[in-house]
Amino acid sequence: xxxxIAGGTGFIGRALTLRLKRDGHSVTALTRSLxxxxxxxxxxxxxxEASASDEALIAALERADAxxxxxxxxxxxxxxxxxxxxxLRRSRIDLTSSxxxxxxxxxxxxxxxxxxxxxxxxxxxxxxxxTEASRPGAGFLxxxxxxxxxxxxxxxxxxxxxxxLRTGVVLGRGGGALDxxxxxxRFGLGGPLGSGTQFxxxxxxxDLIEMVAVAIGEEAFAGPLNGSxxxxxxxxxxxxxxxxxxxxxxxxxVPKFALKLLFGQASSVLLDSQRVLxxxxxxxxxxxxxxxxxxxxxxxxxx
Length: 303
Hints:
- With 303 residues, the chain is α/β, with parallel strands linked by helices.
- The chain has one domain (2-175, 201-229, 275-289): NAD(P)-binding Rossmann-like Domain (Rossmann fold, 3-Layer(aba) Sandwich), CATH 3.40.50.
- 42% of the residues lie in helices and 17% in strands.
- The protein has helices at 11-22, 34-41, 54-62, 82-104, 140-153, 176-186, 205-217, 235-246, 256-263, 268-271, 279-283, 293-301; strands at residues 2-6, 26-31, 46-49, 66-69, 112-118, 129-130, 161-167, 169-171, 199-200, 202-204, 223-227, 233-234, 275-276.
- The strands form four sheets. It has a seven-stranded parallel beta sheet, with helices on both faces. Strands 6-13 form a two-stranded parallel ribbon. The chain has a two-stranded parallel sheet with strand order 8-10.
- Strand 2, helix 2 and strand 3 form a beta-alpha-beta unit.
- Helix 1 crosses helix 7 (205-217) and helix 8 (235-246) packs parallel to helix 12 (293-301).
- The chain is globular.
Protein backbone atom coordinates (compact mmCIF):
# COMPACT_ATOMS: atom_id res chain seq x y z
CA UNK A 1 0.00 0.00 0.00
CA UNK A 2 1.17 3.53 -0.77
CA UNK A 3 0.42 5.97 2.05
CA UNK A 4 0.68 9.76 1.68
CA ILE A 5 1.33 11.54 5.00
CA ALA A 6 0.97 15.27 5.60
CA GLY A 7 2.86 16.11 8.77
CA GLY A 8 5.18 13.14 8.41
CA THR A 9 8.10 14.86 10.16
CA GLY A 10 6.09 15.64 13.29
CA PHE A 11 6.07 13.70 16.57
CA ILE A 12 3.22 11.39 15.52
CA GLY A 13 4.06 11.40 11.82
CA ARG A 14 7.60 10.11 12.35
CA ALA A 15 6.39 7.19 14.44
CA LEU A 16 3.66 6.36 11.92
CA THR A 17 6.11 6.48 9.02
CA LEU A 18 8.46 4.04 10.77
CA ARG A 19 5.57 1.70 11.54
CA LEU A 20 4.26 1.72 7.97
CA LYS A 21 7.74 1.15 6.52
CA ARG A 22 8.27 -1.73 8.93
CA ASP A 23 5.04 -3.28 7.67
CA GLY A 24 6.24 -3.04 4.09
CA HIS A 25 4.20 -0.06 2.91
CA SER A 26 5.50 2.74 0.70
CA VAL A 27 5.32 6.23 2.22
CA THR A 28 5.30 9.68 0.66
CA ALA A 29 5.63 12.54 3.14
CA LEU A 30 4.62 16.16 2.60
CA THR A 31 7.22 18.40 4.25
CA ARG A 32 8.12 22.07 4.38
CA SER A 33 11.83 21.22 4.19
CA LEU A 34 13.28 18.45 2.04
CA UNK A 35 16.52 18.49 4.05
CA UNK A 36 14.67 18.12 7.35
CA UNK A 37 12.40 15.45 5.92
CA UNK A 38 15.35 13.45 4.64
CA UNK A 39 17.24 13.70 7.93
CA UNK A 40 14.23 12.63 10.01
CA UNK A 41 12.63 10.03 7.76
CA UNK A 42 15.55 8.52 5.85
CA UNK A 43 16.18 7.77 2.22
CA UNK A 44 13.45 5.16 1.77
CA UNK A 45 10.62 7.69 2.16
CA UNK A 46 9.55 9.74 -0.87
CA UNK A 47 9.27 13.44 -0.11
CA UNK A 48 7.10 16.19 -1.57
CA GLU A 49 7.83 19.78 -0.63
CA ALA A 50 4.82 21.68 0.69
CA SER A 51 5.53 24.48 -1.80
CA ALA A 52 5.34 22.09 -4.77
CA SER A 53 2.88 22.78 -7.57
CA ASP A 54 -0.72 21.60 -7.56
CA GLU A 55 0.21 19.23 -10.38
CA ALA A 56 2.95 17.64 -8.28
CA LEU A 57 0.56 17.19 -5.35
CA ILE A 58 -2.09 15.61 -7.59
CA ALA A 59 0.54 13.28 -9.08
CA ALA A 60 1.64 12.16 -5.60
CA LEU A 61 -1.95 11.57 -4.51
CA GLU A 62 -2.61 9.67 -7.75
CA ARG A 63 -0.24 6.98 -6.45
CA ALA A 64 -1.71 6.94 -2.93
CA ASP A 65 -4.04 4.26 -1.59
CA ALA A 66 -4.40 6.13 1.72
CA UNK A 67 -3.85 9.68 2.97
CA UNK A 68 -3.07 10.53 6.59
CA UNK A 69 -3.27 14.23 7.44
CA UNK A 70 -1.44 15.07 10.67
CA UNK A 71 -0.24 18.55 9.69
CA UNK A 72 -0.87 21.66 11.74
CA UNK A 73 0.94 24.42 13.60
CA UNK A 74 1.30 23.61 17.33
CA UNK A 75 -1.70 24.72 19.34
CA UNK A 76 0.41 25.85 22.30
CA UNK A 77 3.29 28.23 21.87
CA UNK A 78 2.26 31.78 22.62
CA UNK A 79 -1.05 33.54 22.93
CA UNK A 80 -3.89 33.13 20.46
CA UNK A 81 -3.79 36.59 18.97
CA UNK A 82 -5.52 37.09 15.63
CA UNK A 83 -2.37 36.31 13.65
CA UNK A 84 -1.86 33.04 15.56
CA UNK A 85 -5.50 32.07 15.03
CA UNK A 86 -5.18 32.66 11.29
CA UNK A 87 -2.07 30.46 11.17
CA LEU A 88 -3.81 27.71 13.10
CA ARG A 89 -6.74 27.76 10.71
CA ARG A 90 -4.56 27.90 7.60
CA SER A 91 -2.36 25.02 8.73
CA ARG A 92 -5.38 22.83 9.43
CA ILE A 93 -8.47 23.84 7.50
CA ASP A 94 -6.83 25.33 4.41
CA LEU A 95 -4.32 22.50 4.08
CA THR A 96 -7.04 19.87 4.51
CA SER A 97 -9.16 21.59 1.86
CA SER A 98 -6.17 21.66 -0.51
CA UNK A 99 -5.58 17.93 0.00
CA UNK A 100 -9.24 17.07 -0.55
CA UNK A 101 -9.41 19.25 -3.68
CA UNK A 102 -6.28 17.59 -5.07
CA UNK A 103 -7.64 14.12 -4.26
CA UNK A 104 -10.78 14.96 -6.25
CA UNK A 105 -8.65 15.72 -9.31
CA UNK A 106 -6.99 12.29 -9.40
CA UNK A 107 -8.31 9.65 -11.78
CA UNK A 108 -8.79 7.27 -8.83
CA UNK A 109 -9.02 9.04 -5.44
CA UNK A 110 -7.35 7.41 -2.43
CA UNK A 111 -9.52 4.83 -0.70
CA UNK A 112 -9.23 6.38 2.77
CA UNK A 113 -8.40 9.70 4.41
CA UNK A 114 -7.37 9.64 8.07
CA UNK A 115 -7.69 13.29 9.05
CA UNK A 116 -6.35 14.62 12.32
CA UNK A 117 -8.65 16.45 14.70
CA UNK A 118 -8.60 16.87 18.48
CA UNK A 119 -10.67 16.32 21.60
CA UNK A 120 -10.76 20.10 21.79
CA UNK A 121 -13.84 19.72 19.59
CA UNK A 122 -15.83 18.90 22.74
CA UNK A 123 -14.95 22.12 24.56
CA UNK A 124 -14.94 22.41 28.35
CA UNK A 125 -17.37 19.74 29.60
CA UNK A 126 -16.48 19.03 33.24
CA UNK A 127 -17.05 15.39 34.21
CA UNK A 128 -19.56 14.69 31.41
CA UNK A 129 -18.68 11.43 29.63
CA UNK A 130 -17.92 12.21 26.00
CA THR A 131 -18.02 9.80 23.07
CA GLU A 132 -17.90 10.23 19.32
CA ALA A 133 -21.67 10.87 19.39
CA SER A 134 -21.34 13.85 21.76
CA ARG A 135 -22.11 17.31 20.39
CA PRO A 136 -19.28 19.79 19.75
CA GLY A 137 -18.54 22.35 22.43
CA ALA A 138 -17.98 26.09 22.28
CA GLY A 139 -14.89 28.25 21.92
CA PHE A 140 -12.12 28.88 19.41
CA LEU A 141 -10.60 25.39 19.57
CA UNK A 142 -13.98 23.67 19.26
CA UNK A 143 -14.85 25.84 16.25
CA UNK A 144 -11.44 25.14 14.70
CA UNK A 145 -11.88 21.38 15.04
CA UNK A 146 -15.44 21.49 13.71
CA UNK A 147 -14.40 23.38 10.57
CA UNK A 148 -11.31 21.16 10.20
CA UNK A 149 -13.48 18.04 10.24
CA UNK A 150 -15.99 19.56 7.83
CA UNK A 151 -13.18 20.19 5.33
CA UNK A 152 -12.08 16.56 5.57
CA UNK A 153 -15.58 15.13 5.23
CA UNK A 154 -15.91 16.64 1.75
CA UNK A 155 -13.69 13.80 0.53
CA UNK A 156 -16.62 11.42 1.02
CA UNK A 157 -18.32 12.91 -2.03
CA UNK A 158 -15.45 11.52 -4.13
CA UNK A 159 -15.86 8.00 -2.74
CA UNK A 160 -13.12 8.22 -0.12
CA UNK A 161 -13.71 6.75 3.34
CA UNK A 162 -12.99 9.44 5.94
CA UNK A 163 -11.84 8.86 9.52
CA UNK A 164 -11.77 11.88 11.85
CA LEU A 165 -9.06 11.11 14.40
CA ARG A 166 -9.78 13.14 17.55
CA THR A 167 -6.57 12.87 19.56
CA GLY A 168 -6.01 13.62 23.20
CA VAL A 169 -2.63 14.16 24.88
CA VAL A 170 -0.23 11.78 23.11
CA LEU A 171 2.43 10.32 25.41
CA GLY A 172 5.64 9.11 23.83
CA ARG A 173 9.42 9.35 23.87
CA GLY A 174 11.29 12.01 21.95
CA GLY A 175 8.63 14.68 21.72
CA GLY A 176 5.08 15.64 22.54
CA ALA A 177 3.57 16.77 25.83
CA LEU A 178 5.50 14.35 28.05
CA ASP A 179 8.90 15.75 27.07
CA UNK A 180 7.71 19.24 27.96
CA UNK A 181 6.35 18.13 31.33
CA UNK A 182 9.26 16.00 32.52
CA UNK A 183 11.87 18.61 33.58
CA UNK A 184 9.96 20.14 36.51
CA UNK A 185 8.68 16.74 37.63
CA ARG A 186 12.21 15.27 37.64
CA PHE A 187 13.25 18.08 39.99
CA GLY A 188 10.27 17.50 42.27
CA LEU A 189 8.63 20.74 41.14
CA GLY A 190 5.73 19.23 39.21
CA GLY A 191 2.06 19.27 40.06
CA PRO A 192 -1.43 19.75 38.68
CA LEU A 193 -2.39 22.66 36.45
CA GLY A 194 -5.14 24.91 37.72
CA SER A 195 -7.60 23.15 40.02
CA GLY A 196 -6.40 19.72 38.86
CA THR A 197 -10.00 18.51 38.62
CA GLN A 198 -10.12 18.80 34.83
CA PHE A 199 -10.08 15.49 32.95
CA UNK A 200 -7.17 14.75 30.62
CA UNK A 201 -7.83 12.42 27.67
CA UNK A 202 -4.45 10.80 26.98
CA UNK A 203 -3.09 7.95 24.84
CA UNK A 204 0.23 6.12 24.50
CA UNK A 205 1.87 6.88 21.16
CA UNK A 206 2.12 3.16 20.33
CA ASP A 207 -1.64 2.72 20.77
CA LEU A 208 -2.39 5.76 18.61
CA ILE A 209 -0.11 4.53 15.82
CA GLU A 210 -1.70 1.09 15.98
CA MET A 211 -5.15 2.69 15.81
CA VAL A 212 -4.20 4.63 12.68
CA ALA A 213 -2.64 1.56 11.06
CA VAL A 214 -5.76 -0.49 11.73
CA ALA A 215 -8.07 2.31 10.54
CA ILE A 216 -6.19 2.54 7.24
CA GLY A 217 -6.99 -1.05 6.39
CA GLU A 218 -10.33 -1.71 8.09
CA GLU A 219 -13.38 -0.28 6.31
CA ALA A 220 -15.45 -0.44 9.50
CA PHE A 221 -13.45 2.55 10.77
CA ALA A 222 -15.23 5.61 9.40
CA GLY A 223 -16.34 8.96 10.75
CA PRO A 224 -15.30 10.26 14.20
CA LEU A 225 -12.77 8.18 16.14
CA ASN A 226 -11.55 9.26 19.57
CA GLY A 227 -7.79 8.73 19.73
CA SER A 228 -7.64 8.40 23.50
CA UNK A 229 -7.18 5.66 26.09
CA UNK A 230 -10.24 4.13 27.79
CA UNK A 231 -9.30 5.55 31.21
CA UNK A 232 -9.10 9.37 31.22
CA UNK A 233 -7.83 10.85 34.47
CA UNK A 234 -7.99 14.20 36.19
CA UNK A 235 -4.91 16.38 35.92
CA UNK A 236 -4.35 15.89 39.67
CA UNK A 237 -4.24 12.11 39.16
CA UNK A 238 -2.07 12.55 36.07
CA UNK A 239 0.47 14.60 38.03
CA UNK A 240 0.35 12.16 40.93
CA UNK A 241 0.88 9.18 38.61
CA UNK A 242 3.80 10.86 36.86
CA UNK A 243 5.41 11.77 40.16
CA UNK A 244 4.96 8.23 41.48
CA UNK A 245 6.59 6.63 38.44
CA UNK A 246 9.51 9.09 38.66
CA UNK A 247 9.78 8.71 42.43
CA UNK A 248 9.34 12.45 42.91
CA UNK A 249 6.79 14.59 44.77
CA UNK A 250 4.14 16.15 42.55
CA UNK A 251 2.11 18.51 44.69
CA UNK A 252 3.11 22.00 43.47
CA UNK A 253 0.15 23.31 41.47
CA VAL A 254 0.38 25.93 38.75
CA PRO A 255 -2.45 28.39 39.56
CA LYS A 256 -5.13 29.02 37.00
CA PHE A 257 -4.47 32.77 37.00
CA ALA A 258 -0.80 32.18 36.17
CA LEU A 259 -1.69 30.03 33.16
CA LYS A 260 -4.16 32.63 31.96
CA LEU A 261 -1.57 35.36 32.41
CA LEU A 262 1.01 33.35 30.44
CA PHE A 263 -1.13 31.89 27.65
CA GLY A 264 -4.30 34.00 27.59
CA GLN A 265 -7.12 32.25 25.71
CA ALA A 266 -4.75 29.43 24.77
CA SER A 267 -4.73 28.35 28.44
CA SER A 268 -8.04 26.62 27.69
CA VAL A 269 -5.99 23.76 26.18
CA LEU A 270 -4.57 23.11 29.67
CA LEU A 271 -7.57 24.01 31.79
CA ASP A 272 -10.58 22.65 29.88
CA SER A 273 -11.96 19.30 31.00
CA GLN A 274 -12.79 16.52 28.52
CA ARG A 275 -13.71 13.11 29.91
CA VAL A 276 -13.38 11.37 26.55
CA LEU A 277 -13.92 7.65 25.98
CA UNK A 278 -12.85 5.79 22.79
CA UNK A 279 -16.25 4.17 22.39
CA UNK A 280 -15.99 3.58 18.65
CA UNK A 281 -12.58 1.91 18.83
CA UNK A 282 -13.79 -0.38 21.63
CA UNK A 283 -16.94 -1.27 19.68
CA UNK A 284 -14.75 -2.25 16.72
CA UNK A 285 -12.63 -4.52 18.90
CA UNK A 286 -9.50 -2.40 19.10
CA UNK A 287 -7.21 -3.63 21.88
CA UNK A 288 -5.22 -1.09 23.88
CA UNK A 289 -1.76 -2.17 25.00
CA UNK A 290 -1.76 0.62 27.58
CA UNK A 291 -5.32 1.19 28.82
CA UNK A 292 -4.27 2.81 32.13
CA UNK A 293 -1.96 5.74 32.77
CA UNK A 294 0.58 4.09 35.06
CA UNK A 295 1.29 1.23 32.66
CA UNK A 296 1.85 3.80 29.90
CA UNK A 297 4.16 5.95 32.02
CA UNK A 298 6.15 2.94 33.26
CA UNK A 299 6.67 1.79 29.68
CA UNK A 300 7.85 5.23 28.56
CA UNK A 301 9.96 6.19 31.57
CA UNK A 302 11.23 2.98 33.17
CA UNK A 303 11.60 0.36 30.43
